[in-house]
């Protein structure tokens, strides 16, 4: 078996730089659509109200409602035609600029072994439409010389990570999925009429709090991270169906402004974000020159980016392999996660009080910190923030 490819320092820097570019994206046109069954038995109509509040907070005045009636013989066709009509009417007068579509569904969900995720009015019903119906017109809209549309799917139902629809996105297009719960989670409950603290209501509440706290922008990955931490039992799902950059948009009245930069002392988080402590390995055959340069570049970034190098160490088994512990916002981790040897250690904010040894989840790394072995198998490397992590006993 060939050894797994390790990213270079340049690859890691490029991914982080993509996140910086994502911060500057402004959506000139936004559209919100909610889909539900008329004969739904899970109180989805309540989540229609929550989603309208959510969209209003983002400055979207009109929310299109796709309500599937009992007389719709082929629900998939009805949903696809309705979404196509909403998008055409919403964007036909807007020829320039960037587009964001948010599609919301609340209700029952299940999976077919061959056709993948589907949605139905009641459990066991033969009437259904599939996940691909929610994606169909976004793909065709981009194919016929239309603009690339970023899409966020908010699924207030169980998500089944089975066969996914084939998507041919345009360059830089993002299709991002947020779902209430993964179907493989032990004992996950079916959505029912008794469900009150729904996923939609939670994210609407979080977004309203962000606006009240005068945050100027939000991204959906961070929104889901907060929903995950607020949910003590179930873990909502985040997945990219296309692209790797989480969708970010302004919160009115700051729609077209750059994000506000809270210059708070480290390690306090930016309000509304959740830090991730992550481990990664990079290859550096230059005698640590590239690693030191990368560390200095990261620490030179604007503090409001929220990316910091906490520890750097040599890994065992590969003389050119260097381990790095980075503290990053959740949405940055989502962008870095596809790289080989990237692992999340914790999503909670880690406050460095004294010295705490951390064991990297990487198979070829060893414990680092002041209590690390002194045999030479692990050597801490100076970083711009060295004194916050090491004392003289760590070596040099």
Beta-strand percentage?
15-25%
Helical content stands at 25-40%
Task: Please summarize the sheet with the most strands.
Answer: 6 strands, mixed
Radius of gyration: 23 Å
Structural class: alpha/beta
Q: In DSSP terms, counting alpha (H) and pi (I) runs of 4 or more, how many helices?
A: 8
Q: What's the level 1 CATH class of the largest domain?
A: Alpha Beta
Overall geometric form? globular
Distance between the termini: 35 Å
- What low-confidence regions span 5 or more consecutive residues with pLDDT below 50? 257-272, 349-396
Oligomeric form of this entry?
Answer: single chain
Number of strands: 15
Mean pLDDT, to the nearest integer, reads: 74
Number of domains: 2
Q: Looking at CATH, which topology of the largest domain would you report?
A: Rossmann fold
Q: What's the helix-strand series?
A: HEHEHEEEEHEEHEHEEEHEEHE
Q: Largest sheet, order of strands side by side?
A: 2-1-3-7-8-10
Assigned CATH architecture of the largest domain: 3-Layer(aba) Sandwich
């Amino acid at each position: 078996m060939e050894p797994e490819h390790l990213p270079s320092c340049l690859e890691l820097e490029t991914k982080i730089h993509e996140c910086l570019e994502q911060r500057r994206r402004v959506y000139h046109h936004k559209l919100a659509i909610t889909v539900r069954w008329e004969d739904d038995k899970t109180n989805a109509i309540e989540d229609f109200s929550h989603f309208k509040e959510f969209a209003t907070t983002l400055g979207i005045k009109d929310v299109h409602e796709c309500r599937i009636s009992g007389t719709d013989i082929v629900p998939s066709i009805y949903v696809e035609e309705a979404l196509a009509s909403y998008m055409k009417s919403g964007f036909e007068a807007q020829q320039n600029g960037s587009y964001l579509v948010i599609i919301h569904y609340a209700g029952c969900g299940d999976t077919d072994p061959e056709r993948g995720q589907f949605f139905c009015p009641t459990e066991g019903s033969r009437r259904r439409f599939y996940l691909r119906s929610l994606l169909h017109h976004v793909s065709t809209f981009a194919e016929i010389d239309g603009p690339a549309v970023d899409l966020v799917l908010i699924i207030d139902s169980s998500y089944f990570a089975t066969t996914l629809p084939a998507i041919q996105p345009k360059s830089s297009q993002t299709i991002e999925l947020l779902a209430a719960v993964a179907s493989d989670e032990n004992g996950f409950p079916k959505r029912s009429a008794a469900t009150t603290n729904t996923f939609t209501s939670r994210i609407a509440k979080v977004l309203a709090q962000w606006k009240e706290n005068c945050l100027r922008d939000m991204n959906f990955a961070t929104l889901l991270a907060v929903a995950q931490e607020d949910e003590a039992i179930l873990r909502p799902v985040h997945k990219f169906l296309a692209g790797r950059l989480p969708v970010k948009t302004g919160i009115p009245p700051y729609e077209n402004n750059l994000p506000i930069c809270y210059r708070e002392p480290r390690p306090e988080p930016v309000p509304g974000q959740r830090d991730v402590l992550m481990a990664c390995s990079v290859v550096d055959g230059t005698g640590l020159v590239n690693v030191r340069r990368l560390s200095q570049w990261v620490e030179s970034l604007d503090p409001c980016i929220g990316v910091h190098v906490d520890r750097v160490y040599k890994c065992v088994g590969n003389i050119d392999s260097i381990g790095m512990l980075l503290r990053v916002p959740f949405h940055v981790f989502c962008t870095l996660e596809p790289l080989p040897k990237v692992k999340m250690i914790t999503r909670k904010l880690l406050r460095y009080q004294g010295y705490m040894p951390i064991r990297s989840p990487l198979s070829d790394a060893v414990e680092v910190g002041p209590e690390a072995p002194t045999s030479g198998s692990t050597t801490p490397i100076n970083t711009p923030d060295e004194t916050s992590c090491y004392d003289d006993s760590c070596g040099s």
